[in-house]
Automatic annotation (TrEMBL):
Membrane topology: Multi-pass membrane protein
Protein name listed in UniProt: OLC1v1032877C1
Database matches in PANTHER family: OLIGOPEPTIDE TRANSPORTER-RELATED
Record organism: Oldenlandia corymbosa var. corymbosa
GO CC annotations on file: membrane
Keyword Membrane found: yes
UniProt subcellular location: Membrane
MF annotations from Gene Ontology: transmembrane transporter activity
Lineage: Eukaryota, Viridiplantae, Streptophyta, Embryophyta, Tracheophyta
Length: 586
C-alpha cells in the first residue's frame, strides 16, 4: 500500500571517505541495496502487523468503544504517512537519506519494544472484564493510554523517516549513467515493491496469528527484534554505501516562488511572456510559459531593484525563472487530483478497523482451524495480485488490439479505483445489514451463526480498487511532476493516504455525535452489534460515489505540461512502474 519511487543517479555519489563512487567499485550495487531493502521489509512488517490487529486490542483489552478504537488506529496510520513529508524535508535539506534512516530506524525499534512491554505489563492495561456490557468494564486510564500513545507515535515517527528515504537511498546505490546498473536500478524498485507486499502478507498472516494465539507481547516483540537486526545490518554496511549530498527541499523552491510573486503583486505583467526572466540556457529543459495561474508569473518579472543588481538572480526570494514558476504551476495542477483521491483511502481505513471488528463476531472456522479476524485482510493482497494479473494479461492486450493504446491511463486507473471503492462500501453495507439482522436474535457476546465469508466481497472490491488506485496515483505523481520535485510529489502522493485516515477519524466522530443526539446509541455504538454500521457504510458509499463524479470533472480539467526532456523521462518512469508490477506478478 505504501512506498515511493524516484529516479536517482549514482553518478555524482561518493563513498564514506569522500572518493567518487566510480573510483570505489566495491561500493553500491546489490550488497548495499539488499541491506537497505531489509529495513523496508521490517518496517512494513512492524507497521502493518500492528495496525491491522490493533483495533481488537483496543476494543477487547483496553475496553474502548468501537469509534474510539477505530479513530486511534486511523490517526496512528495518518500520522505515519504525514510524517513522510517531514522525513523527506530533513533528508533533502539537512541530513541526507542515510542519516535520516540511521536516526529513525532505531526510533521505530524503540517504539515497537515499548508497545511489546505495554501489552505485557499488567499495570499498563485495565483489568480483564467478563461483563456483557462495556459500560460496566473499566476503561484504560489516562496513564495507560499515555504509555500506549507514546509507543504508537514513536513507531509513527520512525515510519515517516524510513519511508521518506529508503527507496531513494536504495536507488542511489546504482548509477543510471551505467547501462548495467540502470537495469539493476529498475530491478531494485521491482524488489522494493515486492517486499512491501511480502511484509504486508507476513504481517496479516503469521504475525497476526502469533498475536492472537500466543500473545501480543510476543508478536510486537518479533517486530522490535526484526527492526533491531535490520538496523544493525544497515549500519554495518555503512562503508559499502554510496552517498549523495542534500540538494535542497522542493518546499523551499515553492516558497521562493510564492514569496517573490507576493512581493511583486502590484507590478504589471509584460505583454510578451518572453520578457519574463529565464536563466536556463538549455532550451530543451525549459518549461514553456502558460497563461494559467498568471499571478505567479510576477515572480519572474524583472523589477527595477533586480535590474540594478550585478547578479540578477542572486536572490531567489525576489526573482524566479519562468521554468521554476511553471514547475510550481505543475504542482498546483496536481492538487485537484490529490484532493479527490483522499476519499478512497477513507474507505480503505474501514477495512482495517470496523471490518476487522465485524469479523470477530462471525464464525471463522476453516476445518479445525480458526482464522484470526485481522487475517481477513489477506484478501486485500489476493485481490491486488489478481487485479494486476487481469490488467496485465487481459486489459492491456485488449487496449492494444482494439484502441491502439498501451493500456489504461493513470487517470483512468485512479477513476476505476474510486468506482470499485464505492461498490465495496455498498457491499459492506449489505453484508452488515445481514449481520445485524442475525445479531438481533443471538445472545450478546456469542459468535453469530453466520460465516465470516460474507465480508469477502468488500475486501475483494476495495482490494482490487487499491491495485488500480495505488498504481495509478504512483504513475500520475511520478510522471506529471517536475524532475526537481519528484521527492515532493511522492510525498504529496503519500499524504493522500494520511488525509484519508484522518478524514476517517473525523467522519466517525461527526457521525457518532449527530446520531447520538437525543440519547441514542448512534451508528457507531459502544458495541458493534448495538449500532448501525450498515448506515455508516452506506453513507461512505454515497460520499465515495459523489467523489468519483467530482474526480471525473477534475480529470477532464487536468492538462499535462511537458518539455522534450520531460517526455523522455515520462517514458522511462512508465517503464519503471510497469516493470515493478510485472515483477510482483512473476
Amino acid at each position: 500500500m505504501e512506498g515511493e519511487m524516484e529516479s536517482s543517479s549514482g553518478s555524482n555519489a561518493v563513498e564514506l571517505q569522500g572518493s567518487t563512487a566510480d573510483q570505489q567499485p566495491k561500493t553500491g550495487g546489490w550488497v548495499a541495496a539488499t541491506l537497505i531493502l531489509g529495513i523496508e521489509l521490517c518496517e512494513r512488517l512492524s507497521t502493518m502487523g500492528i495496525a491491522v490487529n490493533l483495533v481488537t486490542y483496543l476494543n477487547e483489552t483496553m475496553n474502548l468503544s468501537s469509534a474510539t478504537s477505530a479513530n486511534i488506529v486511523t490517526n496512528f496510520l495518518g500520522t505515519s504517512f504525514l510524517l513522510c513529508l517531514f522525513g523527506g524535508f530533513l533528508a533533502d535539506t539537512f541530513l541526507g537519506r542515510y542519516r535520516v534512516i540511521a536516526i529513525f530506524a532505531p526510533v521505530q525499534t524503540i517504539g515497537t519494544a515499548m508497545l511489546a512491554i505495554s501489552t505485557q505489563v499488567p499495570q499498563l492495561r485495565p483489568p480483564t472484564c467478563a461483563s456483557q456490557s462495556r459500560n460496566e468494564c473499566q476503561q484504560a486510564s489516562s496513564s495507560q493510554m499515555v504509555a500506549l500513545y507514546g509507543s504508537l507515535y514513536l513507531i509513527a515517527i520512525g515510519t515517516g523517516g524510513i519511508k521518506s528515504s529508503v527507496s531513494g537511498f536504495g536507488s542511489d546505490q546504482f548509477d543510471e549513467n551505467n547501462k548495467r546498473e540502470k537495469a539493476q536500478m529498475t530491478l531494485f524498485f521491482s524488489r522494493f515493491f515486492f517486499l512491501i507486499s511480502l511484509g504486508t502478507l507476513t504481517a496479516v498472516t503469521l504475525l497476526v496469528y502469533v498475536q492472537d494465539r500466543v500473545s501480543r507481547s510476543w508478536g510486537y516483540g518479533i517486530c522490535s527484534v526484526s527492526m533491531f537486526i535490520a538496523t544493525l545490518l544497515f549500519l554495518m554496511g555503512t562503508r559499502r554505501y554510496r552517498f549523495k549530498d542534500s540538494c535542497g527541499s522542493p518546499l523551499i523552491h515553492i516558497l521562493q516562488v510564492l514569496v517573490a510573486a507576493t512581493k511583486k503583486r502590484k507590478l504589471q505583467l509584460p505583454s510578451n511572456s518572453d520578457e519574463l526572466f529565464e536563466d536556463i540556457q538549455d532550451v530543451s529543459t525549459r518549461i514553456p510559459h502558460t497563461d494559467q495561474f498568471r499571478c505567479l508569473d510576477k515572480a519572474a518579472v524583472i523589477s527595477k531593484e533586480t535590474e540594478t543588481c550585478k547578479n540578477i538572480a542572486s536572490n531567489p526570494w525576489n526573482l524566479s525563472s519562468t521554468t521554476k514558476v511553471e514547475e510550481v504551476k505543475m504542482m498546483i495542477r496536481l492538487l485537484p487530483i490529490w484532493a479527490t483521491t483522499i476519499m478512497f483511502w477513507t474507505t480503505y481505513a474501514q477495512m482495517i478497523t470496523f471490518s476487522v471488528e465485524q469479523a470477530t463476531t462471525l464464525r471463522r472456522k476453516f476445518g479445525h482451524f480458526e482464522i484470526p479476524a485481522a487475517s481477513l485482510t489477506v484478501f486485500f493482497v489476493a485481490a491486488i495480485l489478481v487485479s494486476l494479473a487481469a490488467y496485465d494479461r487481459l486489459i492491456i492486450p485488449f487496449c492494444k488490439r482494439w484502441t491502439g493504446l498501451p493500456g489504461l491511463t493513470n487517470l483512468q486507473r485512479i477513476g476505476l479505483g474510486l468506482f470499485l471503492a464505492s461498490l465495496g462500501m455498498a457491499a459492506a453495507a449489505i453484508a452488515e445489514a445481514k449481520r445485524l439482522s442475525v445479531a438481533k436474535f443471538t445472545a450478546p457476546n456469542t459468535t453469530l451463526p453466520l460465516s465470516v465469508y460474507i465480508l469477502i466481497p468488500q475486501f475483494l472490491l476495495i482490494g482490487s480498487g487499491e491495485a488500480f488506485m495505488y498504481s495509478g496515483q504512483l504513475d500520475f505523481f511520478i510522471t506529471q511532476s517536475p524532475k526537481a520535485m519528484k521527492t515532493m510529489s511522492t510525498g504529496l502522493f503519500l499524504t493522500t493516504l494520511s488525509m484519508g485516515f484522518f478524514f476517517s477519524s473525523l467522519i466517525v466522530s461527526i457521525v457518532q455525535k449527530i446520531t447520538t443526539i437525543g440519547g441514542g446509541k448512534g451508528w457507531v455504538a459502544e458495541k458493534i452489534n448495538q449500532g448501525r454500521l450498515d448506515c455508516f457504510y452506506a453513507l461512505l458509499a454515497l460520499l465515495t460515489f459523489i467523489d468519483f463524479w467530482i474526480y471525473l470533472v477534475c480529470a477532464a480539467w487536468y492538462k499535462p505540461q511537458t518539455t522534450y526532456e520531460k517526455n523522455q523521462e515520462m517514458v522511462t518512469d512508465k517503464v519503471l512502474v510497469v516493470s515493478t508490477m510485472e515483477e510482483v506478478l512473476v
